[in-house]
Amino acid sequence: MNFSMANINGLNVFFRECGDPNKPVFLLLHGFPSSSHMFRNLMPLLEDHFHVIAPDYIGFGQSSAPGVSMFEYTFEHLADYVQALLNALGIEKFYMYVFDYGAPIGFRLAVREPERILGIVSQNGNIYEKGLGERWTTRKIYWDTPTAELRLFLQATYAPETILREYMAGEPRGNISPDGYSLDIYYSRTDGFADRQDSLILDYRTNVAMYPQFQEYIKTYQPKLLAIWGKNDESFVPAGAEAYAENDVNAEVVLLDAGHFALETQYKTIAAEILKRFA
What span, in angstroms and rounded, lies between the C-alpha atoms of 31 and 56? Predict the structure, then answer.
């Protein structure tokens, strides 16, 4: 596996890369509060069949993280930088794997340039209101009335104990390696992280507002799609996976006995399902 930096509009975008550049590209888009590190186990299982690219978004992982006064932390802007990275690398068409925050970023790319998308894997990557779990109730209130009190309350989203619980919930005890959540907790304690994430938590309302556009893309283009879901996820519930099949005749739904970070324990199963359908 290779590790590289690309300078995009004066900022460094870190990305992991493996596989033959002459083979189809598989773009892996990470979630919150993670980074491309979450794909460390999956990438070696895909590299014989694809050219695999996994970037860190601006403000995440090893990519540049300018302050909120210098960079607009919105999902639209993060998608701009992923799109610019693909262009800089000369990637025209690609499969994409979207998880959590990666879904609104990836589907923005699909809506902008649908001809570039070869197929989609959505692993707990939601684009349906019915896929939002009960914990989103408070966030919806915050989006409508972004008070300082609610902003402070929602900062618990990236507290170390919350990150640990997000990894552990829905998983058999002892199955989770500490590598993923330990690194996420480390990043969550770095300078400026809270301000960046506060901005994105508020901006998440734009993702929900765009759900109809994302769904229209699915209905119109009928992409080959695998919705593979940790069915015990408390953030994005299985109804979000099943909804893909309601809109796309080429969608297949696989529910795993896992939580939100299903890739931590189910990476071999997920890789096998990807290869079965896309290789």
Answer: 10
